[in-house]
Specification:
By secondary structure, the protein is mainly alpha-helical. The protein has eight helices and three strands. It has helices spanning about 5-35, 40-65, 80-110, 120-150, 150-180, 185-215, 220-230, 265-285, and strands at about 240-250, 250-260, 290-295.
Length: about 300
């Protein structure tokens, strides 16, 4: 998939998610206030975080798809990694916020004899609608993210699912409070706490690889071994060493030293490096950054 096609697909899928988030955001806030449900209002805030991260994706994908220039000679791929980090941090904040809010209500119910207000049916309907829409958005966004090899789109897909998880917890809590009576209204904040742990887990799963990329962590060992194997397949090349790898957004950067016959003409040695570059780009994508340093074979 070429860069322009990839960019258009990411933008298109993100716009679909943004439209869904806007509709859910309005519906949830209205249902939360009319239905007297603090859980639904919290769920609406979660949808607001989805909407904000959609905007982050739209802004950063336009930046990250730009080719290299005088100030970013390796391109702008790290902006996509930065966007993934922002989404992960947003999820982390939302997760801890839901945990605090739910935990405080559970504590008040059991230790301060606080009476929790019973929500109305409109809040339950909003939660069920949210589950369906967000699960659809998750599947569409995740599939597109894998097709485009976009960390940011995959991260945004998981953000959709985290909102679906949140709505499941909200639906259980609201349904229990409505159907089981006053003593069971505590199910709402209890479910919110459980959901918050799931959200925090997803946040760390997104943040750790994104931070590794920002901190220039090398590619996995099996990938580096595959790179060495590809280089060794080129006739006339031996002893690949000083291998350095990293990610730049969704692209790989590969640097390596190789040895050739010390009597080999410069032109022929140059052709060997071009062959190595072509093989690596064929395997890891046309956007792969490759730098091969030639050294003479040892006596």
């Amino acid at each position: 998939m070429d860069t322009e096609t990839r960019k258009k697909k990411i933008v298109r899928v993100t716009l679909v998610g943004t439209a869904g988030n806007i509709l859910l955001l309005i519906f949830k806030f209205v249902a939360g206030f009319l239905g007297r449900s603090s859980a639904m209002i919290a769920d609406a805030v979660h949808s607001l975080s989805d909407f904000v991260t959609d905007l982050v994706v739209l802004v950063f994908i336009n930046i990250s798809s730009r080719p290299g220039d005088n100030t970013h000679k390796y391109g702008h791929g790290k902006f996509e990694t930065l966007a993934t980090t922002i989404i992960g941090l947003a999820l982390l904040v939302v997760g801890f916020g839901l945990m605090w809010q739910g935990g405080n209500k559970v504590y008040g119910f059991y230790f301060r004899d606080e009476v929790l207000e019973s929500p109305a049916y409109i809040a339950l309907v909003a939660a069920l609608v949210s589950i369906i829409i967000k699960e659809v958005l998750y599947r569409v966004t995740l599939r597109a993210g894998k097709e485009c090899d976009s960390q940011t789109l995959i991260a945004n897909g998981w953000h959709h699912r985290s909102d679906a998880f949140s709505s499941i917890g909200t639906a259980i809590g609201i349904g229990g409070a409505i159907l089981l009576g006053e003593k069971w209204r505590v199910l709402d904040p209890v479910a919110a706490v459980v959901v918050s742990f799931l959200i925090i887990k997803v946040a760390f799963e997104l943040l750790i690889p994104a931070l590794n990329d920002l901190l220039e962590r090398s590619l996995p060992l099996e990938t580096e071994e595959e790179i060495v194997g590809i280089i060794e397949e080129v006739p006339g090349v031996s002893d690949p060493h000083n291998l350095r790898t990293r990610r730049i957004g969704n692209a790989f950067a590969i640097e390596a030293h190789v040895r050739v016959d010390k009597h080999m003409p410069v032109y022929q040695a140059h052709e060997l490096t071009r062959e190595i570059e072509q093989k690596l780009r064929l395997r890891f994508g046309a956007q792969t950054h490759v730098a091969i340093h030639i050294e003479p074979t040892k006596e």
